[in-house]
Write a structure and sequence with these properties.
Elements lengths: L4 E2 L8 E3 L5 E3 L2 E2 L5 E2 L5 E2 L4 H10 L3 E6 L14 E8 L8 H12 L3 H4 E9 L5
Parallel strand pairs: 8-9
Antiparallel strand pairs: 1-6, 2-3, 4-5, 7-8
Helix pairs in contact: 1-2
Length: 129
């Protein structure tokens, strides 16, 4: 049986302190029975950008278009790609455009230094036009 994901990890380990100062970690139990930290594995054929957005924002629809070829020769093109992200997520409900974009940037922050130079974002809540 082929695995559903590649061994690349995205996201963070959620940590809290309770009222008594104890540190709490979020663990998940896999269908195989073992316990682990949630890592947000990339599915086969999924880009790093898609995996990070899926992990952090649980989109109902997601499209990532690599526009890098349209910027060949541009001064910043060698520092990373140019992408358009079209995403619908319940996390955007009731949020202004700037707050939605901030959530997308926060999800992609670990990829910014080496993989993303420019990002066009179309973010909406499910059911919005």
């Amino acid at each position: 049986m082929q695995p559903e994901f590649e061994e690349r990890s995205f996201g963070v380990v959620p940590v809290w302190k309770d009222v008594d100062g104890r540190v709490l970690f979020l663990l998940i139990q896999h269908h195989s029975g073992h316990w682990a930290f949630p890592k947000g594995h990339a599915h086969i054929g999924e880009t790093d950008i898609e995996a990070a957005l899926r992990r952090e924002l649980q989109p109902s629809s997601l499209e990532v278009v690599d526009d890098s070829h349209r910027h060949a020769g541009h001064a910043g093109a060698r520092d990373g790609g140019h992408f358009t992200v079209r995403i619908a997520s319940q996390r955007f409900a009731g949020l202004a455009r700037v707050a939605r974009h901030r959530l997308v940037y926060d999800a992609l922050r670990p990829l910014m230094p080496g993989g993303i130079h420019a990002l066009a974002i179309e973010a909406r809540a499910p059911g919005e036009g």
